[in-house]
Amino acid sequence: MASQRLCPLADSFSSVCLLDSMGNDLSIVNDAKQSYDRHAQEFGDKERRLLDYLLSHNHTSPLRGAILRFHVKAPLFVARQWWKHTVACTYVDDQLGWNEKSFRYCEASEHEYYYPETFRKQSTNNKQGSDGEISDQDKAASVYSRAVGIAVESYIDLLEMGVAKEQARAILPACLYTSFTWTCSLQALLHFIQLRREPGAQGEIQAYAIALEQLASEKFPETFALFSNV
């Protein structure tokens, strides 16, 4: 299957690419019908009603048979938030794989770092969230850029001194771009999207959740049409 790519953040580095998928709306319904030893040849109104029932009543085990594999390029701080979903899904077997670029083996780029378009204020009623923009955007951008520049320059100096990549990487900032392949069930994907597209989620990871939904909905249009109404 040809890959499909979206760039969720407003820069030239971020991307989400759908590499492969298995299953469709009908296969999900047929996994549910298996309890009665039944099988549908086509997706019709009865299948749509069953799929709606499954999603509305959180009977989502049939969604575990539908698999998607994405290639993602994202800042480290986004990847670390994302990784929490891998840990959370371990016990229900709906999360299949995570393979990430290693800066023990690869040198970090001098250029691929995330720079926000705007700097947000800390929310006064949400300890972990943001609300609105700060007034002095230019000064914030200057401080941010200076910090990144110092870290990158120091990293390069350490490598040139012969320090191992596995140690030198410790000073790299969390805005460094990494890349990973994420293999997940449709159940895990819907859970991710549901949590990370909410207004209270961090804006940067919201953008990735929206991109994932756009890509996956092309493969499972009936599921996502009903999911949006749940």
Question: What is this entry, summarized?
Answer:
With 230 residues, this protein is of the alpha+beta class. The protein has helices at 25-33, 45-56, 76-89, 137-160, 165-168, 186-196, 203-217, 221-227; strands spanning 4-6, 15-22, 67-75, 95-100, 120-122, 130-133, 177-185.
Provide the fold topology.
Layout: E1 4-6, E2 15-22, H1 25-33, H2 45-56, E3 67-75, H3 76-89, E4 95-100, E5 120-122, E6 130-133, H4 137-160, H5 165-168, E7 177-185, H6 186-196, H7 203-217, H8 221-227
Strands in their spatial order, largest beta sheet: 1-2-3-7-4
Q: Main β-sheet: number of strands, strand sense, barrel status?
A: 5 strands, antiparallel
Query: What overall geometry do the principal axes of the alpha carbons give?
Result: elongated
Distance between the termini: 30 Å
At CATH level 3, the topology of the largest domain is Gyrase A, domain 2
CATH C-level class of the largest domain: Alpha Beta
Mean pLDDT, as a whole number?
Answer: 92
Number of helices: 8
Order of helices and strands: EEHHEHEEEHHEHHH
CATH architecture of the largest domain: 2-Layer Sandwich
What would you report as the Rg, rounded to the nearest angstrom?
A: 21 Å
> Helicity level, as a percent range?
40-55%
Number of strands: 7
